[in-house]
Amino acid sequence: MNLNQITVPSLNLEKSIPFYQKLGLQLIVEALPHYARFECPEGDATFSIHQVEKLPTGDGVHVYFECSNLDEHVKALIEKGIEFEELPNDKNWKWREARLRDVDNNQIILFFGGVNRKNPPWRI
């Protein structure tokens, strides 16, 4: 089994699409107003957004995108006008992360996990 894609809800794809393109994802399907799909710049996974009438409540969606050059990528995004809630910093779970929200308040985490991504010291 392999992860194909993650889909997140959006109230307005015409606002969401440019946001994700600015993050570096490549738009491959544009079926407005209901659906859009992107390719990640690395690997085979894809990411999509679909229109909803109401966003989920509670803690919401968290999406992690791994960046081997996290600090440089965040700096470039800031220069493009992307606002971050949390700049790159080292976490006690041995990842380096930066956090932001998309236009629909979904939590986006850009991170670098290195060897600890799948093999932390506490792995079973």
Automatic annotation (TrEMBL):
<feature type="domain" description="VOC">
    <location>
        <begin position="2"/>
        <end position="113"/>
    </location>
</feature>
<dbReference type="Pfam" id="PF00903">
    <property type="entry name" value="Glyoxalase"/>
</dbReference>
<dbReference type="InterPro" id="IPR037523">
    <property type="entry name" value="VOC_core"/>
</dbReference>
<protein>
    <submittedName>
        <fullName>VOC family protein</fullName>
    </submittedName>
</protein>
<dbReference type="InterPro" id="IPR004360">
    <property type="entry name" value="Glyas_Fos-R_dOase_dom"/>
</dbReference>
<dbReference type="InterPro" id="IPR029068">
    <property type="entry name" value="Glyas_Bleomycin-R_OHBP_Dase"/>
</dbReference>
